[in-house]
């Protein structure tokens, strides 16, 4: 290759405005033939060959997936496994448009950002070029000679949903995601000056080094001018000349910019490069504007993945380009919404699954800050047709090469790599980014999917590879994602060769079925895998991820009487000093069931965060107000340098017994009466009538002011095989006690009472004013897979909602405890099956941690209030319905008998690929109690 030093490179002092003729002239002009996104469609004439609304000419909005517009047939990619279930309709499109006479001396191209799947394009009856194959790739044709200027033109497109290329069908259509048909991304014309830059490819390093390739066929251009601007088009800089080389239509440019700010997800600084072609007289022939970010990516063998000389832990998620009402047709607004949600979960990375996304998604990753893995579309099966595979690699890289957010290329997914394509990426990538094989051991990385917890030992024969699972926890229904993440991440963060990983996946891919009365369809258990629902509804794992992946990692802390205000903290940012963030401390008090749901602030202050460099540890201190011990809880709210909340942690100051002291009044005049027969113990106050079994001591009936409150059949002591020995009653003018003693069990001894055998017991105390106390003592083995606690029956149909003080508003699992906040919450009843139906979050049914009190709101009954006086007690509220074919551990959960329970241990949940017990210590069902000397106590107070 020969190099010619024939140009001047300028980075000049300049304010670019609309009046700047030098840069405003000779830009690329764009004319949309379609709409711009899912919310802005343009009607084209349309004919569908089969299925809904077929065999007639009508109208369709473009861009769109035709199924979502009521045409053709729906197909999920796995339908190929069912005989005769794959539909192969085609669509015919026609659209008339006018091209300005001013374009007659320009080169005009028609651009299709995405068509599913084979596209034959005609302009005014003539083929624009060869049929394009491949559903997720941008393609274009030069149509200068086919156009009529200043008058009407006709574009015709024949689109086959299935490709005539078997390799493309196998790679893109036989998949685990929805497949659609249509012109689903925008179509537009681009008008270039006759002498122009086709495109540029830029490598902008973190040290300011710039290398660029300009692709041009211009015969008049003799030099180029390059202006560096900020994202708004403003900059003040001048650089000396570097060099230029010219060969076969490619001009190679290099330079060095000083005082630039590098790009990273924590501070994604973007710039513009303005490339201008100049003729021999210095006249500007064409200006091409390219957005860039300065950053350097290195995959260091046996070490890690580095960006700007910083080793990265990727906190990522897989994401489909998808909306339930428009399929693969999306919008810039949706891209920004999704990325903001990812950033809100404290993620720093996203993997494209399993195809290149919309351009606007990558642009938003550049500007908002996310690392991106860009992927060639395959699913288990590669493009066996290497020729077409090479073409699609080129289309991927040429379109996406300049995005600083893209740090790696994925050659397909899960064995879907044609190894003959591995070296194709670098042919088109000036940055020479590395290629990985997701789910494979390839070169420097091990991207094994869904490793079990014991796989984190990482001591196998590839222990010198970078551990980089591109899918590692699967979120089918409510399993995976947050469940197990805390334990996985503790190992992955500390493992030197771990580069983090990616969750599967961002959103439930449930599509609106225009052929089924607009019902949402996730194809059974194939696509309800999201952290959020199809419309972005946040599931419980959303907030667990937000806490676990917080870049400010606060060590677990318990506030007791000797609390000194200190918190141990680790800075888990890669580029940001901790002192760039802020924390606000708020000491609060909570009302009881009859009060406000809003907390009362008794003191508020800012925390002085120390200077702690990335990945370093330190201590910060919260000021203790004089009355801090009167608070019920402490909130710490961390905010990042951009003003976004990182997370709010809550710390109980008072435990339930202390908090509830004084909340219940036992005063007030009242009479109490008792009736006892062979089967019943009846206790009555002025407004309350209670009935207990004289055989078991269990409550059988509650009537308040003549209205039945259907709480019954409790407290059953869970996981107890002991039998009732004695039930007796103690009565006085102020109260009645109903006591049930169980048979003594030789396993349990009270060493303080001369080895006398101790017993499990139930004690009801009914006060004359209608307050009812329940005290239960439970004996336990040191370890158990059963539940320890109490349960009652309460018909689900009689439940309208609940208000409670405890962790919320989302339910928890044993292996998904983080992400909640101690507060007064209110949830209306819903019967949501996570990821399958309802999509009303938070789910009403499930386990809720750290209960202080709960107000049950009844249907056709007055409900009741219950106060819990013991720390670390869970409320179990009803039993969630089972989702459809949950697979392995994704709903292999156990529930206590009854409907409403107060328990000391709860179930974990597994995932699609992991049984319960395979995802870490807290994913095990076995609970260690470890104390035979003292009973487990559960003390409740009921207000009926």
Can you walk through the features of this model?
- With 944 residues, the protein is mainly beta.
- A hairpin with a 3-residue loop joins strand 58 (761-767) and strand 59.
- It folds into five domains: 13-22 and 196-292, Immunoglobulin-like, CATH 2.60.40.10; 29-193, Galactose-binding domain-like (Jelly Rolls); 298-533, Glycosidases (TIM Barrel); 566-652, Sandwich (Immunoglobulin-like); 673-943, Distorted Sandwich (Beta-galactosidase, Chain A, domain 5).
- The chain is built from nine helices and 70 strands.
- Helices cover 8% and strands 37% of the residues.
- Strands 54-55-58-59-70-66-65-62-63 form a nine-stranded antiparallel β-sheet. Strands 3, 4, 6, 9, 10, 11 and 13 form a seven-stranded antiparallel β-sheet that branches.
- Helix 3 (332-344) runs parallel beside helix 4.
Write the layout of secondary structure elements.
Layout: E1 13-15, H1 21-24, E2 29-32, E3 42-48, E4 57-62, E5 75-76, E6 90-98, E7 106-112, E8 115-116, E9 118-123, E10 126-127, E11 132-133, E12 139-142, E13 152-160, H2 166-173, E14 178-179, E15 182-183, E16 187-193, E17 197-204, E18 209-216, E19 223-230, E20 234-236, E21 243-247, E22 250-256, E23 263-264, E24 267-268, E25 271-278, E26 284-292, E27 297-300, E28 304-307, E29 310-311, E30 314-319, H3 332-344, E31 349-352, H4 359-368, E32 371-375, H5 386-400, E33 406-410, H6 424-428, E34 435-436, E35 441-442, E36 445-446, E37 466-467, H7 485-494, E38 500-503, E39 511-513, E40 519-521, H8 540-548, E41 552-554, E42 566-571, E43 582-589, E44 600-607, E45 617-621, E46 633-639, E47 645-652, H9 656-660, E48 673-676, E49 680-684, E50 688-693, E51 699-704, E52 707-709, E53 712-717, E54 724-731, E55 735-742, E56 749-750, E57 756-757, E58 761-767, E59 771-778, E60 783-784, E61 789-793, E62 799-808, E63 821-828, E64 846-848, E65 853-858, E66 864-868, E67 874-877, E68 900-903, E69 927-928, E70 936-943
Parallel strand pairs: 30-31, 30-38, 31-32, 32-33, 33-34, 36-37
Antiparallel strand pairs: 1-20, 2-16, 3-4, 3-6, 5-14, 6-13, 7-12, 7-16, 8-15, 9-10, 9-11, 9-13, 17-18, 18-22, 19-25, 21-22, 23-24, 25-26, 27-28, 28-29, 35-36, 39-40, 41-42, 42-45, 43-44, 43-46, 46-47, 48-49, 49-50, 50-51, 51-52, 53-61, 54-55, 55-58, 56-57, 58-59, 59-70, 60-69, 61-68, 62-63, ...
Helix pairs in contact: 3-4
């Amino acid at each position: 290759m020969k190099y010619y030093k024939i140009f001047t490179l300028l980075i000049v002092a300049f304010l670019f405005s609309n009046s700047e003729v030098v840069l405003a002239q000779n830009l690329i002009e764009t004319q949309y033939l379609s709409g711009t996104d899912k919310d802005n469609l343009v009607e084209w004439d349309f004919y569908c060959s089969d299925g809904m609304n077929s065999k007639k000419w009508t109208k369709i909005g473009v861009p769109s997936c035709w199924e979502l517009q009521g045409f053709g047939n729906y197909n999920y990619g796995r339908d190929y496994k069912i005989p005769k279930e794959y539909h192969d309709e085609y669509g015919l499109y026609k659209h008339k448009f006018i091209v300005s006479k001013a374009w007659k001396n320009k080169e005009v191209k028609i651009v299709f950002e995405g068509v599913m799947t084979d596209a034959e394009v005609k302009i005014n009856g003539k083929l624009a070029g060869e049929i394009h194959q491949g559903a997720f790739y941008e393609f274009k044709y030069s149509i200068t000679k086919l156009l009529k200027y200043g008058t009407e033109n006709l574009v015709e497109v024949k689109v086959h949903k299935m490709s005539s290329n078997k390799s493309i069908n196998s790679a893109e259509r036989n998949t685990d995601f929805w497949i659609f048909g249509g012109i689903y991304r925008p179509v537009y014309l681009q008008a270039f000056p006759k002498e122009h830059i086709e495109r540029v490819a830029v490598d902008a390093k973190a040290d300011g080094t710039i290398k660029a390739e300009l692709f041009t066929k211009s015969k008049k251009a003799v030099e180029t001018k390059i202006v560096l601007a900020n994202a708004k088009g403003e900059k003040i800089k001048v650089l000396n000349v570097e060099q230029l080389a010219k060969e076969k239509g490619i001009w190679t440019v290099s330079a060095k910019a000083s005082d630039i700010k590098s790009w990273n997800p924590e501070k994604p600084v973007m710039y513009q490069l303005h490339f201008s072609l100049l003729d021999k007289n210095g006249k500007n022939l064409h200006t091409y504007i390219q957005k860039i970010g300065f950053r350097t990516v290195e995959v260091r063998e046996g070490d890690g993945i580095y960006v700007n000389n910083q080793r990265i832990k990727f906190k990522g998620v897989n994401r489909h380009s998808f909306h339930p009402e428009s399929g693969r047709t999306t919008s810039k607004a949706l891209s920004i919404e999704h990325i903001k949600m990812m950033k809100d979960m404290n993620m720093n990375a996203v993997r494209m699954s399993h195809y290149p996304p919309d351009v606007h998604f990558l642009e938003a990753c550049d500007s908002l800050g996310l690392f991106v893995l860009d992927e060639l579309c395959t699913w288990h099966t590669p493009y066996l047709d290497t020729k077409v595979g090479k073409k699609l690699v080129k289309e991927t890289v040429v379109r996406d090469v300049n995005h600083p957010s893209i740090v790696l290329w994925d050659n397909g997914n899960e064995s879907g790599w044609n190894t003959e394509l591995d070296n194709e990426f670098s042919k088109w990538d000036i940055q020479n980014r590395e290629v990985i094989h997701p789910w494979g051991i390839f070169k420097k990385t091990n991207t094994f999917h869904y490793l079990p917890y014991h796989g984190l030992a990482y001591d196998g024969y590839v222990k010198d590879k970078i551990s980089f699972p591109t899918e590692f926890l699967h979120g089918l229904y409510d399993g995976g994602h947050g469940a197990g993440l805390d334990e996985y991440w503790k190992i992955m963060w500390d493992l030197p060769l771990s580069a983090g990983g990616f969750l599967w996946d961002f959103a439930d891919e449930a599509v609106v079925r225009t052929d089924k009365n607009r019902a949402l369809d996730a194809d059974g258990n194939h696509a309800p895998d999201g952290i959020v629902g199809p419309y972005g509804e946040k599931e419980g794992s959303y907030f667990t991820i937000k806490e676990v992946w917080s870049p400010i990692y606060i060590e677990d802390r318990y506030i007791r009487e000797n609390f000194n205000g200190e918190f141990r903290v680790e800075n888990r940012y890669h580029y940001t000093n901790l002192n760039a963030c802020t924390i606000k401390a708020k000491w609060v008090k909570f009302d009881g069931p009859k009060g406000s749901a809003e907390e009362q602030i008794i003191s508020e202050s800012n925390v002085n965060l120390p200077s702690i460099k990335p990945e370093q540890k330190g201590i910060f201190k919260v000021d203790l107000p004089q009355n801090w011990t009167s608070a019920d809880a402490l909130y710490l709210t961390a905010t990042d340098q951009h003003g976004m909340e990182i997370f709010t942690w809550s710390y109980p100051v008072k435990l339930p017994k202390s908090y509830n002291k004084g909340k219940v009044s036992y005063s007030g005049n009242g009479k109490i009466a008792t009736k006892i027969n062979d089967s019943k113990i009846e206790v009555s106050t002025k407004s309350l009538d209670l009935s207990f079994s004289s055989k078991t001591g269990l409550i059988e009936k509650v009537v308040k002011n003549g209205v039945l409150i259907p709480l019954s059949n409790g407290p059953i002591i869970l996981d107890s095989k002991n039998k009732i020995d004695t039930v007796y009653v103690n009565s006085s003018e102020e109260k009645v006690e109903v006591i049930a003693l169980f048979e003594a069990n030789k396993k349990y001894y009270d060493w303080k009472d001369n080895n006398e055998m101790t017993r499990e017991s139930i004690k009801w105390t009914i006060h004359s004013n209608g307050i009812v106390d329940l005290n239960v003592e439970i004996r336990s083995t040191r370890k158990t897979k059963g539940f320890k606690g109490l349960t009652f029956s309460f018909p689900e149909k009689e439940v309208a909602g609940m208000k409670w003080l405890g962790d919320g508003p989302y339910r928890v699992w044993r292996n998904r405890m983080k992400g909640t906040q101690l507060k007064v919450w209110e949830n209306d009843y819903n019967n949501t099956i996570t990821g399958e139906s309802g999509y009303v979050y938070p789910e009403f049914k499930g386990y809720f941690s750290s209960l202080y009190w709960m107000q049950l709101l009844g249907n056709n009954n007055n409900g009741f209030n219950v106060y819990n006086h013991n720390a670390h007690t869970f409320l179990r509220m009803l039993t969630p319905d089972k989702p459809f074919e949950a697979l392995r551990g994704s709903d292999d959960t156990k529930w206590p008998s009854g409907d409403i329970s107060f328990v000391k241990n709860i179930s974990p949940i597994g995932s699609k690929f992991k049984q319960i017990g395979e995802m870490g210590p807290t994913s095990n069902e076995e609970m260690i109690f470890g104390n035979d000397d003292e009973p487990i106590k559960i003390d409740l107070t009921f207000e009926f």
